[in-house]
Write a sequence for this structure.
């Protein structure tokens, strides 16, 4: 059966929607149809994709105006007469056809301070309870498809906000680390408010609506982060206490504005990227090196030697087989 | 066909798509319903608050939540906490509580979504352009005061206690439909108030180690379950408030009489 498609073709110098009539079979998704277009009618149609299973976050596109993953949008959700319009993500600069330059997101990622374990705890020694780490784990489901970043009207409709606004994906990162039981940094709330632009969010929840991993971005990350900022910024009782006890002078101030000039590598963002937390020798700590052995640790404990001596086993061997071995057995 | 080689970071220009939105579904329906629903409710509530009559059924001690606690000279027997205010048409009978209730709903994380979308069109729906040229969100005056939601929540907690007291006071003689309506309203108001995102944060959301605070963790779990229904509860309570008020208004104006279940 043939369906009508309109696909945006072009690059940064301009472009337009192009019409295609293309075959569609049962069980196919939009990405399959894009591939069929490449195979049959438009061999130079550019499209980014990888896993076709909704886990890599590459095939983000806008299908009938809604930000979706091409591989997770079933053709059966459209009626037979419906024209399906496929365009690149609007918020990011276009490279060609359906491929956009999402480096805005990587830049914002570099500006987010990394996980910082408490002093004296080496990798391999992290211990935490499931109940403590559960909230952070929801945000680890993120596949970085950047549909939330694309749909957020703060940057989608107002390009000028890109400098001071990091977007929903990095709010869940900030929330993940602020809620993490072993993260020792205490300035994450400040960072979220002053450098990530948490105050720009007006909780209209489009990020949650488009998330293919169904992360409750607004309810579980952005609103809790806003409340955590309120704890220290807008709570009049807390402010009064801080004034009286002079706590406000004890905290390290976070630079509110960027301190270095914009370059081609860091065109947007208020905070400069941070390097990895290396040791005095300039190298990262690696978990395996903290262990006494190479490779994974034994689930039975490192002081257990195999085979166990017979007096320590808790079962009886079956009676020894006294029959002669089969012929030919050496 | 494009033949030029392109590399990231070179252009920085978005795809030239002329249509403002390419959405083909009825994205305008949800904001429209929100707009009509909230406007109708605000109109009804404003009229009722400034009507200054038909708020109290003396026989059964029914007091409408829009006039609770009743603190002006008009209140008569409905006054449970004295009448410090004069009767002037601009002063609502519940002048001490209505501003806080208004603030609680205005700064509520659900209603913010609802009216930013339906009234302010910022944005009207996902992937539909914002109706405004510039946008600063909640970073500056006056919207930065949305962060005061927590204090409105504390006030709303106190007001829920007063509403509960009204339902208990109405329990003096027998049981009528009015009692049932009042109780349903109070239970729903409590559910809405406790499902608040600020309540969730205060209950335990602010903790880093749930394992060290098992009681607060359980309370947080309970509030989290309610919290997923915050939107439904927000609309349900608008409905129960209007219904309770209308029922008591009708009884008070003698449009019909209370359906007595017992006594």
């Amino acid at each position: 059966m043939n369906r009508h498609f309109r696909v945006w073709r072009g690059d940064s110098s301009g472009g337009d929607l192009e019409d295609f009539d293309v075959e569609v079979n049962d069980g196919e998704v939009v990405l399959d149809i894009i591939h069929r277009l490449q195979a049959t009618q438009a061999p130079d149609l550019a499209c980014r994709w990888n896993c076709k299973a909704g886990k890599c976050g590459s095939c983000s596109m806008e299908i009938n105006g809604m930000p979706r993953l091409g591989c997770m949008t079933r053709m059966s959700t459209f009626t037979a007469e419906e024209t399906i319009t496929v365009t690149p993500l609007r918020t990011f600069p276009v490279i060609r056809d359906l491929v956009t330059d999402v480096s805005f997101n990587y830049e914002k990622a570099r500006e987010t301070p990394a996980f910082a374990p408490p002093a004296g705890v080496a990798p391999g020694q992290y211990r935490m309870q499931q109940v403590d780490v559960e909230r952070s784990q929801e945000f680890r489901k993120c596949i970085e498809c950047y549909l939330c970043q694309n749909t957020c009207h703060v940057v989608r409709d107002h390009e000028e906000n890109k400098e001071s606004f990091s977007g929903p994906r990095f709010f869940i990162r900030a929330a993940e680390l602020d809620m993490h039981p072993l993260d020792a940094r205490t300035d994450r709330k400040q960072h979220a408010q002053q450098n990530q632009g948490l105050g720009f969010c007006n909780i209209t929840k489009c990020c949650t609506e488009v998330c293919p991993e169904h992360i409750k971005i607004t309810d579980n990350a952005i609103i809790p982060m806003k409340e955590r900022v309120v704890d220290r910024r807008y709570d009049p009782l807390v402010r009064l206490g801080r004034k009286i006890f002079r706590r406000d002078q004890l905290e390290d101030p976070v630079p509110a504005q960027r301190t270095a000039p914009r370059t081609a590598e860091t065109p947007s963002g208020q905070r400069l990227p941070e390097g990895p937390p290396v040791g005095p020798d300039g190298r990262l700590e690696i978990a395996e090196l903290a262990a006494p052995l190479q490779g994974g640790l034994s689930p039975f404990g490192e002081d257990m030697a195999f085979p166990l001596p017979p007096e320590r086993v808790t079962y009886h061997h079956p009676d020894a087989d006294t029959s002669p071995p089969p012929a030919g057995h050496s | 066909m494009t033949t030029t080689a392109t590399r990231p970071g070179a252009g920085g220009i978005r795809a030239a798509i002329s249509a403002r939105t390419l959405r083909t579904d009825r994205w305008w329906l949800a904001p429209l319903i929100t707009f009509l629903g909230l406007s109708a409710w605000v109109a009804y509530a404003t009229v009722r608050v400034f009507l200054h009559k038909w708020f109290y059924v003396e026989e059964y001690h029914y007091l409408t939540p829009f006039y609770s606690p009743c603190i002006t000279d008009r209140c008569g027997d409905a006054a449970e906490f004295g009448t410090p205010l004069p009767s002037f048409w601009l002063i609502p009978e519940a002048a001490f509580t209505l501003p806080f209730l208004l603030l609680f709903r205005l700064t509520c994380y659900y209603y913010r979504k609802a009216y930013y979308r339906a009234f302010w069109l910022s944005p009207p729906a996902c992937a539909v352009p914002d109706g405004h040229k510039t946008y600063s969100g909640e970073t500056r005056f006056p919207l930065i005061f949305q962060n005061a939601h927590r204090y409105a929540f504390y006030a709303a907690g106190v007001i829920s206690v007063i509403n509960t007291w009204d339902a208990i006071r109405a329990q003096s003689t027998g049981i009528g439909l009015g009692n049932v309506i009042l109780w349903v309203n109070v239970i729903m108001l409590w559910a809405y108030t406790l499902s608040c995102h600020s309540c969730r944060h205060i209950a335990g959301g602010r903790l880093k180690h749930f394992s060290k605070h098992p009681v607060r963790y359980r309370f947080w779990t309970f509030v989290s379950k309610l919290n997923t229904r915050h939107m439904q509860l927000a609309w349900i309570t608008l409905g129960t408030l209007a219904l309770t008020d209308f029922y008591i208004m009708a009884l008070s104006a003698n449009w019909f009489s209370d359906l007595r279940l017992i006594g």
User: Anything to note?
Assistant: Chain B has one domain: 29-130+139-262. Chain B touches chain A through 58 residues (CB under 8 Å). Chain B has eight helices and four strands. Residues 230-252 of chain B form the longest helix (23 residues).
